């Protein structure tokens, strides 16, 4: 067993993570002092795999400081354009700084295929979008992917013009009506402050027709998305029309999603890549993803914070709860889907399948 585990870990360390491809960076374009656009050179044989829906993201695996780090970045390009992402350097962001300071044209990087459910769908004729800072990235892709005759009302918040990425692009997109918000600069035609409760109320009251839109997209920090979600619900917008994406996993002092249930010790069977894996779960210990990782397996993951859905799987026997869930819908949870990076069993036996 020991030898088997060593084999599994060696295999994991010496090869690409499962589902990843080595892709060449075609070009790094500086957008602002703190952000870059990274354009990928997708080889012909992988082009079909890298067809994406506007709003999707790609997971990246970067080895730096002697460790593997995974992060998800939203695609900013539109359908038919070279696949590109935008990365803003975060103050303590290992990977975001690596993209801004180390990555260069011609370098190869490990990337997953595009994925994610925060997407513009065909038939959407009128959409409303709220973005803060680098949250504009998936929204820009959606704006470029609007169908003929469709329109987007975009509300875009930034500190100032210098820090705003894709400022010119969003101002010049056809069928997009944009209103800017700057919290640290007075700009003609723009509103002052953040996209907060009172601004959201004003937006809706000034144009009640917005409430009839096909979808409401928002991408930014959790406080902003929660404020907007609450306000939209108050104005009667249906849950299934509200789509949100967070920049990153919120810091871990948030309360668990459901405090009414207690995880229990459990024999866990996981179906991963056609292989049945047995692990033992103990309460207040590791989540299912962490257990698999500790055993040397290579389950899919990126944020590890309940945000990206890369680790989504389905509970097919037994019951489970999640510490956090910022991405699965109520219906998906009802159907048994879980985020394995957050999953803890509620029954003494449980089966979880990745391959569904
Ligand atoms: S790894 Fe991102 S939600 Fe689990």
**CATH architectural grouping of the largest domain:** 3-Layer(aba) Sandwich
Which ligands, by name, code or SMILES, are bound? FE2/S2 (inorganic) cluster
Query: What is the CA-based Rg, rounded?
Result: 21 Å
Structural class: alpha/beta
- Residue share in helix: 10-25%
CATH class of the largest domain: Alpha Beta
What is the strand content?
25-35%
User: In one word, what is the shape?
Assistant: globular
- What topology, given as strand order, has the largest sheet? 4-3-6-1-2-5
Biggest β-sheet: count, sense, barrel? Answer: 6 strands, antiparallel
Mean pLDDT level: 91
Unreliable stretches covering 5 or more consecutive residues: 1-7, 9-13
What is the terminal separation in angstroms? Answer: 28 Å
What count of domains describes the coordinates? 3
Number of helical regions: 8
Secondary-structure element pattern, one letter each: HEEEEEHEEHEHEEHEHEEEHEEHEEE
CATH H level, superfamily name of the largest domain: Nucleotide-binding domain of ferredoxin-NADP reductase (FNR) module
How many β-strand stretches?
Answer: 19
Characterise this structure.
This protein has 356 residues and is of the alpha/beta class. The chain has three domains: 18-111, Translation factors (Elongation Factor Tu (Ef-tu), domain 3); 126-246, Rossmann fold, CATH 3.40.50.80; 266-353, Ubiquitin-like (UB roll) (Roll), CATH 3.10.20. It contains eight helices and 19 strands. A hairpin with a 2-residue loop joins strand 1 (21-32) and strand 2 (35-41). It binds FE2/S2 (inorganic) cluster. FE2/S2 (inorganic) cluster is lined by residues 301-304, 306-311, 339, 341.
């Amino acid at each position: 067993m020991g030898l088997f585990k060593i084999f599994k870990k060696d295999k994991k360390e010496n090869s690409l993570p499962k589902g990843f491809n080595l892709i060449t960076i075609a070009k790094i374009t500086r957008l602002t002092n703190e952000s870059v656009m990274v354009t990928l050179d997708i080889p012909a044989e992988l082009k079909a795999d890298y067809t994406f829906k506007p709003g999707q993201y790609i997971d990246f695996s970067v080895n730096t400081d002697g460790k593997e780090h995974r992060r998800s970045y939203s695609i900013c390009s539109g359908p038919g354009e070279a696949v590109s992402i935008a990365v803003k350097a975060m103050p303590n962001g290992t990977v975001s700084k690596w993209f801004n300071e180390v990555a260069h044209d011609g370098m190869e990087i490990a990337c997953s295929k595009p994925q994610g459910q925060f997407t513009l769908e065909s038939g959407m004729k009128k959409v409303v979008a709220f973005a803060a800072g680098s949250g504009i990235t998936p929204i820009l892709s959606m704006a470029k992917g609007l169908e003929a005759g469709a329109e987007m009302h975009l509300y875009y918040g930034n500190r100032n013009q210098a820090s705003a990425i894709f400022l010119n692009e969003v101002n010049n997109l056809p069928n997009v009506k944009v209103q800017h918000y700057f919290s640290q600069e007075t700009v003609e035609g723009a509103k002052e402050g953040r996209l907060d409760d009172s601004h959201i109320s004003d937006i809706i009251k000034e144009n009640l027709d917005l409430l009839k839109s096909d979808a409401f997209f928002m991408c930014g920090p959790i406080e902003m998305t929660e404020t907007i979600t609450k306000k939209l619900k108050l104005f009667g917008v249906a849950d299934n029309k509200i789509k949100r994406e967070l920049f990153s996993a919120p810091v871990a002092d948030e309360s668990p999603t459901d405090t009414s249930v207690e995880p229990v010790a459990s024999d866990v069977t996981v179906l991963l890549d056609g292989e049945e894996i047995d692990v033992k779960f103990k309460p207040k210990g590791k989540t299912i993803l962490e257990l698999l990782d500790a055993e040397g397996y290579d389950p899919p993951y990126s944020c590890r914070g309940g945000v990206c859905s890369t680790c989504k799987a389905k509970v097919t026997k037994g019951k489970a709860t999640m510490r956090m869930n910022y991405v699965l819908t109520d219906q998906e949870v009802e159907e048994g889907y879980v985020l394995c990076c957050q999953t803890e069993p509620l029954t003494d036996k449980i089966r979880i399948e990745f391959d569904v």
